[in-house]
Amino acid sequence: MPTTDLQHLYNKAWLFASQAHLGQTMKASQLPYSTHVAMVANELIFADREESVGALEIALPAALMHDVIEDTSVTQATIADLFGERVASVVASLSKNLIVPFSEEQYFQAIAAHSKEAAAIKLCDRITNLQSAPATWTQTKRASYLVESSQILAALGHAHEYLATRLNTAMVRYETLI
Ligand code: NI
To answer: Torsion angle, CA of 77/80/82/84, rounded to 10 degrees?
Structure first.
C-alpha cells in the first residue's frame, strides 16, 4: 500500500479509536486513552523500518484499535465492516474479554498463533506501557507487571527480533523505576 494511503488509514483508524475511547484516560493519568494507542502505533511504524511487522495496512489500523473491543462497546463485526476482516481478526485476538474463562497463557499463545501482526502489536503495547510506571501502582504491582512482561517476551519475542530487544531494554529500564 502506498505511504499516502497508509497515512490516510492511520488517521481513519485513530479517529475511530479516539471516538470509541472518548472519556477514557490512560492509567493514573488525565491524558486521553487515544494518546496510548498513538504511542503503540508509533512504536510499530519505527519497528517496521527495522524488520517487517507483517502487512502494515493490517498491523497499523489494528494497533490503533487494539483495545477497542476490550474496552468499548465496538464489536468485531463493526471493525470488519469499516476496516476489513483481517484487521478485525487481529484486534479480536488481542482482546482479553473474548477468552472466557480468561487464562494469560492461553491469551499469549493465541496471539502467537494468530499472526506476526498480532504478536508485533502486543510487543509494542507492552514496550509502550513500560515507558513509565503509573504513580498509583505499588511496588508489588510493578514487580508482577515485569513478570507478566517476561511471559510476553517468552511467548511472542520470536515473532519479531527487533521488538524483542526493545522489550528487553524497556524491562531493564523499568526495573530502575521500581
Ligand atoms: Ni494497550
So the answer is: -170
Whether the ω angle into residue 101 lies within 30 degrees of 0, i.e. cis, is yes
Distance 118 CA to ligand 1 centre (A): 12
Predicted confidence (pLDDT) at residue 27 exceeds the cutoff of 90: no
Query: What is the CATH superfamily name and number for domain 3-175?
Result: Hypothetical protein af1432 (1.10.3210.10)
DSSP tag of 133:
-
Across 3-7, 94-98, 121-125, least confident range:
3-7
Domain boundaries, the chain: 3-175
Alpha carbon of 134 to ligand 1 centroid (Å): 14
Neighbours of ion ligand 1 (CB under 5 A): 67, 125
Name the percent of the chain lying above pLDDT 70.
99
Determine the distance separating the centroid of ligand 1 and the alpha carbon of 63, expressed in angstroms: 9
Question: pTM of the entire structure?
Answer: 0.96
